[in-house]
Specification:
The chain is an alpha+beta fold and about 900 residues long. Helices cover about 55% and strands about 15% of the residues. A hairpin with a 2-residue loop joins β7 and β8. The chain is globular and about 140 Å long.
Length: about 900
């Protein structure tokens, strides 16, 4: 019998193998019985003797089945390898035959997979990767929820925290941090600013981590009069000290004060809502025992719960403890309740929703790209029906044809994934650079193995998404039609393309509408924030910078002399109109609060109202652009030794002097700096100031810097033109006065305002980029599908033209079909955007989630894009000549 070629031989199933083994055994026994019968043995005896001579039939059957199954497995494995090799070769040849098609598909995939991989690398580092602490799920922050309206405060008093730690059975450990500060580091030649944060000695024990070098703080560090020590951040250790492992024990000068280095933080260290260059120890026990200092809510905390204690149990317990704690601390007003928040959630804050939204946006863009590619593959696969029909006629089953088409998709997915991963390295760096001021400081974002696995899964999933539908559609082959005449094939091609393409095009447009709506809402929010009245101007004509004057000069007179000299130098710069300074600017927040009482009015000593307090130089209001509503601003006569004066904001005037003019009234400022016994006069009212466009206004009282004995840390300069060219001159002026005072964060006020809305700008920019990409993909998808449909129906259009159809009729025929598909996509997109817009509500400010302008503009834009994309192929359909159409076959 002629041997069946290996590539046509089908693998046998287990049942078929058992049947074949039984046939072989039966054949051997029958042949032996037949031979014995020919020798004269009776038939029944011959049969019995043949069975006896054969031996253990069951054992032989099992042995033969095992051998055959192993052979079949080897054959199947070999055949699969050969088939895969053949399919890969066919796919490679197909890519080489259509380089333009391959380039479009690979570029689309690379952009989609690269963007998703880059975003996932950031999302994994910030949202998924656990904090680098022992059992981080047991770590929580404590917030104070006021009893009246107002935002939660993440600061509690030392008295509250120490009592909670002592009385709670759920808390295994409690530590505090705070007292943020700026120090000037000097090495004798250069000076630079270092940010410091003070932490309790048990800070590292509670977090469950150790310094990478040296030791952690211990009890006794930070005690007044004791040796001053610090722990360096990993970045400072590497940049300033070159990673020297002998840095432990060295002396570092901060504000000309010697500190001994006792440790270095790990590279993976994550501050609980802070980023610092060095950590300093704080004697928290001494603060808790101080009757006055212990009542001030100034400490941020981290608690570690005991193993097995749930968040609900902890909440219940602190609700029971809260009344007792607050009863023992009556000085704390508007105390409210306590709210525990997981440490990871507290660190991520409002960045989490932005990253999730961006990740979803990137995935949806990839889906849109896959839908676009699916349309291209569908058109291409339908055009290959003759080829697939030939393969089917030669014996290939549908499963084999599907596998061949899917292999081509997987090849595209693999190559596109490789390009995407390479692209993601650069995109990741761009994303981190753009979002650097928004992202928590979680260390370096890397393309590690988990990110590569994500990219691999994404590549395979993308291949299946854009390859499965075309594979199923193209392999539904009728051999007679596929190998028949051209007219039959053309009709078949047109119908097959129309069935899947319209759905894909509608889906693309729907996704694009959702993107454009979300991007429009975020853009509208960003515009509203930029137009928000902040109470001060924030233009490119203003420059702002910080100096650590207090770290250089101890005496108020020396600080005042330096500030005065610097202002004189800055006024000499070209185009400078005003220069002012304050200790802490209102737009940076963090102002200290003072008790505010109107002279002559009785006030309950336990209910003195608190308002923000700031110092200001004479030209501060003019330089910052804070308008004076009543009275006057400070002038050079408001100095130390002269009658004390204050300027108040409009909200203070409305609160304490409704329908009255407060100018001339006298007030008491409890806990204010300067002469605490003075009763200053209100000489002016200025506009209310918001720290940023997303914050509420601050009720503020201002005192002249000379009278408050608080001098410039933050300077503001107003010029006639753009202030950016003045920044190097400002730095030079400071350096000429004192080279040991570094310039901190110099920038224009416009850039400062942009930083305050960086989170909204990041979301708007990324979603806007995704929207543009989705819009382009949708336009290309509509154009590509319509162009293919017109090309497949050229014979039909030629016949219609020959039968008398006008160009307008043919144009409307094509446009109607395309626009109907587009409008269905637009309608679906509007419904989807309306349903999903509420998920971006937390990112909006001053804009409704169903903003009418956005929901009208986005569909209109997509409709215009769809009309243009349909019009070009439709116009080409009107140019088909009857003679040309009849010659197509």
């Amino acid at each position: 019998m002629r041997r069946i070629p290996r590539f046509l031989r089908l693998p046998r199933s287990a049942a078929r193998v058992r049947a074949d083994v039984d046939d072989e055994i039966r054949f051997d026994i029958d042949m032996r019985a037949h031979e014995l019968t020919r020798r004269g043995v009776r038939a029944d005896a011959a049969r019995a003797r043949a069975v006896a001579e054969f031996g253990d039939i069951e054992a032989t059957r099992r042995y033969c089945e095992e051998i055959d199954m192993q052979i079949e497995a080897d054959v199947r494995r070999s055949q699969l390898i050969d088939d895969a090799r053949a399919d890969l070769l066919v796919a490679w040849r197909a890519m080489r035959r259509a380089p333009a098609f391959a380039a479009v598909v690979l570029l689309t995939l690379a952009l989609g997979i690269g963007a998703n991989t880059a975003v996932f690398s950031v999302v994994r580092r910030v949202l998924i990767a656990p904090l680098p602490f022992r059992a981080p799920e047991q770590l929580f922050r404590l917030y104070a929820v006021p009893s009246t309206a107002g935002a939660d405060d993440d600061k509690l008093s030392a008295a509250e925290l120490s009592e909670l730690a002592a009385e709670s059975h759920s808390i295994a450990g409690l530590t505090v941090f705070g007292n943020y500060g700026g120090f000037t580091y000097t090495d004798g030649q250069t000076a630079e600013p270092w940010q410091t944060v003070s932490v309790a000695p048990n800070f590292f024990d509670v977090l469950g981590m150790k310094p990478v070098l040296g030791r952690a703080f211990m009890r006794g560090d930070g005690i007044r009069g004791g040796k001053l020590v610090l722990i360096l951040s990993y970045a400072i250790w590497q940049r300033v000290f070159g990673g020297d492992r002998n840095v432990i024990g060295k002396t570092v000068l901060l504000n000309a004060i010697p500190f001994a280095v006792v440790g270095v933080l790990p590279e993976t260290f994550v501050g609980p809502t802070f980023s610092a260059d060095v950590l300093l120890p704080w004697d928290f026990d001494a603060t808790a025992q101080n009757p006055v200092a212990s009542q001030r809510r100034m400490w941020r905390s981290v608690v570690r719960l005991r193993e097995g204690v749930s968040l609900e149990q902890f909440r219940s317990e602190i609700e029971v403890l809260r009344p007792r704690v607050q009863a023992r601390n009556p000085e704390i007003k508007n105390a409210g309740t306590f709210r525990p928040v997981e440490l990871h959630e507290a660190i991520v804050g409002r960045t989490g929703p932005v990253l999730i939204m961006v990740m979803i946006g990137a995935l949806v863009v990839l889906v849109v790209a896959c839908v676009n590619i699916a349309g291209l593959f569908l058109s291409r696969a339908v055009a290959r029906r003759r080829e697939l029909g030939v393969r089917a006629a030669l014996g290939a089953g549908r499963g084999r044809l599907v596998r061949q088409v899917l292999t081509e998709s997987l090849v595209y997915g693999a190559v596109g994934g490789i390009f995407g991963v390479a692209l993601s390295v650069g995109l990741k760096d761009v994303l981190v650079a753009v979002a650097g001021s928004v992202l928590p400081q979680f260390g370096e974002v890397r393309i590690d193995m988990s990110v590569l696995v994500f990219a691999l899964v994404l590549s395979i999933a993308s291949s299946l998404v854009f390859g499965l539908l075309p594979a199923l559609a193209a392999t539904r082959v009728d051999v007679r039609t596929a190998l028949g005449d051209g007219a039959a094939r053309s009709a078949s091609h047109g119908k097959a393309a129309a069935r899947g393409s319209r759905t894909l095009v509608s889906a693309q447009i729907a996704f694009a509408v959702v993107f454009v709506v979300v991007a429009g809402l975020l853009t509208r929010t960003f515009v509203v924030l930029l137009r928000t009245n902040l109470g001060y101007t924030a233009s490119e004509q203003q420059a702002t910078f910080m100096l650590n004057i207090g770290g250089r000069f101890r005496e108020p007179a020396a600080r005042s002399a330096f500030a005065t000299s610097l202002i004189e130098r800055l006024h000499a710069l070209p185009g400078v109109r005003a220069v002012g300074y304050t200790a802490v600017s209102p737009w940076n927040g963090g102002l200290m609060q003072v008790g505010f009482r109107v002279d002559g009015r009785a006030v309950d000593a336990n209910a003195v109202p608190k308002i923000e307090f700031a110092s200001a130089s004479p030209e501060f209001f003019s330089a910052a652009g804070i308008p004076v509503r009543m009275g006057r601003a400070f002038n050079t006569n408001d100095r130390a030794g002269s009658p004390p004066v204050v300027v108040i904001s409009e909200s203070v005037a409305r609160r304490f002097w409704p329908n009255e003019n407060p100018v001339g009234a006298r007030v008491h400022l409890d806990d204010a700096l300067g002469d605490s016994t003075a009763v200053p006069e209100v000489v002016g009212v200025v506009a209310d100031v918001r720290p940023s466009a997303t914050d509420d206004i601050q009720s503020t009282v201002y005192m002249p810097a000379d009278q408050a004995h608080v001098y410039g840390n933050e300077f503001v300069l107003r010029a006639d033109g753009d202030a950016r060219p003045l920044l190097p001159m400002i730095k030079q002026s400071v350096h000429e006065l004192d080279a040991r005072i570094p310039l901190i964060n110099p920038r224009t006020m416009h850039d400062m305002l942009a930083d305050s809305v960086r989170r909204q700008q990041l979301a708007m920019g990324l979603m806007g980029a995704f929207a543009i990409l989705a819009l382009v993909l949708a336009a290309l998808g509509v154009y590509g599908i319509m162009a293919y449909g017109v090309a497949a129906r050229r014979r039909e259009f030629g016949i219609r033209s020959a039968l008398g159809a006008s160009r307008a009729a043919i144009l409307w025929l094509v446009l109607r079909q395309g626009l109907l598909t587009a409008m269905l996509g637009v309608a679906a997109g509007v419904l989807g955007a309306a349903a999903l817009s509420r998920f971006v509500g937390s990112m909006l400010s001053g804009v409704s989630t169903h903003d009418t302008m956005t929901f009208v503009a986005a569909p209109t834009l997509l409709a215009i894009v769809a009309i243009v994309a349909c019009a070009v192929p439709a116009r080409s359909a009107t140019k088909v000549q009857p003679v040309e159409a009849l010659r197509l076959e």
